[in-house]
Amino acid sequence: MKTRRQARIVALQTLFEVDSVHHPAKVVLAQRFAEKPLPAEGKAFARQLVMGVLEHQPALDAIIQSIATDWPLEQMAIVDRNILRIAVYEITVDGQTPVKVAINEAVELAKLFGSDSSRRFVNGVLGTLVSNRGIVSEEQV
Predict the structure, then answer these.
(1) Residues 48-87: tens digit of each pLDDT
(2) In the prediction, which pLDDT does 135 show?
(3) Looking at residue 36, what DSSP letter applies?
(4) Could you list the pLDDT tens digit for every one of the 141 residues in the chain?
(5) How are the residues of the chain apportioned to helix, strand and coil, as percentages rounded to the nearest 5?
(6) What is the residue extent of each domain of the chain?
(7) 64 and 6 Cβ atoms separated by less than 8 Å
(8) Are 101 and 107 in contact (CB under 8 A)?
(9) Annotation: CATH topology of 3-140
(10) At what angle do helices 3-21 and 40-67 cross, to 10 degrees?
(11) Cβ partners under 8 Å of residue 5, min gap 6
(12) What is the 3-state secondary structure (H, E, C) of the chain?
């Protein structure tokens, strides 16, 4: 498995624990790194995702809520909510990952960790984000 996908998995697991039981992010991240060794660039990327999502969480949640109006954040599955936060962060804040890659990676995380409907839900929300914001994927350029 590629390093960046492994880093996203670690970031998702960390954010899930922080969101569900409110453990300190840095402690949880350190535990995840001990359980799943990553190269330095993978650790840096996972840390960037976790800290970036937490720093920008109110704005990310507002974006998600504006798109998924039928699903209040507190009623979304915790895993889906955090997959969306990571992807929305990558697309709207970080900007270093191509949009198509961020969406594909989010869908893959949803397949691995979400319910049967998570993949479609995540893909739909992110597709709407891209079309509403006029974000252009690499293929469309």
Answers:
(1) 999 999 999 999 999 999 999 888 999 999 999 999 999 9
(2) 54
(3) S
(4) 699 999 999 999 999 999 999 999 999 999 999 998 899 999 999 999 999 999 999 999 999 999 998 889 999 999 999 999 999 999 999 989 999 999 999 999 999 999 999 999 999 999 999 998 765 443 332
(5) 80, 0, 20
(6) 3-140
(7) no
(8) no
(9) N-utilizing Substance Protein B Homolog; Chain A (1.10.940)
(10) 60
(11) 105, 108
(12) CCHHHHHHHHHHHHHHHHHHHCCCHHHHHHHHHHHCCCCHHHHHHHHHHHHHHHHHHHHHHHHHHHHCCCCCHHHCCHHHHHHHHHHHHHHHHHCCCCHHHHHHHHHHHHHHHCCCCHHHHHHHHHHHHHHHHCCCCHHHC
Q: Is 103 exposed, middle or buried (0-12, 13-18, 19+ CB in 10 A)?
A: buried
Question: Could you identify the residue written with the tokens 């079309």?
Answer: 131
CA 128 to chain centre: 16
For the record, the structure tokens of 2 come out as: 């590629």
- Residues written for the chain: 141
